Amino acid sequence: EAQVTQNPRYLITVTGKKLTVTCSQNMNHEYMSWYRQDPGLGLRQIYYSMNVEVTDKGDVPEGYKVSRKEKRNFPLILESPSPNQTSLYFCASSLGPGLNTEAFFGQGTRLTVV
Amino acid sequence: GENVEQHPSTLSVQEGDSAVIKCTYSDSASNYFPWYKQELGKRPQLIIDIRSNVGEKKDQRIAVTLNKTAKHFSLHITETQPEDSAVYFCAAWNSGNTPLVFGKGTRLSVIA
Fold first, then answer.
1. DSSP state of B42
2. Distance CA B82, CA A51 (A)
3. What phi, psi does B82 have (nearest 5°)?
4. Which DSSP string corresponds to A85-105?
5. Which end of chain A is more exposed for a tag (fewer CB within 10 A), N or C?
6. From the CA atom positions of chain B, what is the Rg in Å?
7. How far apart are the C-alpha atoms of B103 and A44, rounded to whole Å?
8. In this complex, do A56 and B99 lie within 8 Å of one another by their Cβ atoms?
9. A39 — contact with chain B (CB < 8 Å)?
10. Cβ contacts (< 8 Å) between A42 and chain B: which residues?
11. Does residue A2 belong to the interface with chain B, where contact is any CB pair within 8 Å?
12. C-alpha distances in angstroms, B108 versus A37, B5, B12, B22, B40?
């Protein structure tokens, strides 16, 4: 089954404790992206990747890191989480902008930083 | 970069009435305009999309129109039903090395 898988689904952590949210897709998609969703602010882009080893900042990259060492995986890293990073996070993937196809979203990760 | 504005932020309609959500975009090179529906507690899912070589597209009760000159596109839902209640997002994408950009969303409530 074609899918985007995020883990974990829920996470409560403490300020400053490094964490990684994983994202994996099995559709051989070149484009992958991370968004955070907060009430009234829609889907704000954190980072995106056009292909392996190619990543770019989105609208709200501060406090986040990503890597794209393999096509299927695009982990989101919070080196020192803070309470303002409490949010619902979505990973998405697509064939790519040149092909303008559907973006598939993961199930979401609800992160709480206390 | 691309900027997508979406209106209204909230919309309430009576069951059976029509709903219209409007979006504008800034990048004239954008050529792909998808619409996503996000039900409560779920992930966004594509419901319809339109490409810049088409002015209108329909799928049952849902239609999307595109005006390239004015750089705006709209989602039309006819004969609304309670299960249409959700948050709807528009987005825009061009074929260069730029990201898919979303509007801020519209919370649609269909009142039975």
1. S
2. 40
3. -55, -35
4. G-EEEEEEEES-TTTT-PPEE
5. N
6. 14
7. 9
8. yes
9. no
10. 6, 89, 102-105
11. no
12. 17, 17, 6, 13, 11
- Beta-strand pair B62-67/B56-59: antiparallel
Do A20 and A77 form a contact (C-beta atoms < 8 A)? yes
| One pLDDT digit (tens) per residue for chain A, 114 residues | 889 999 999 999 999 999 999 999 999 999 999 999 998 899 999 999 999 999 999 999 999 999 999 999 999 999 999 999 999 999 999 997 766 689 999 999 999 999
Residue B66 near residue B90, CB atoms below 8 Å: no
User: How many of the other CB atoms lie within 10 Å of CB of A73?
Assistant: 14
- Here the tokens at position A85 are 């990073």
Virtual torsion, Cα A63, B106, B7, A62, nearest 10 deg = 0
Strand, coil or helix: A45 = strand
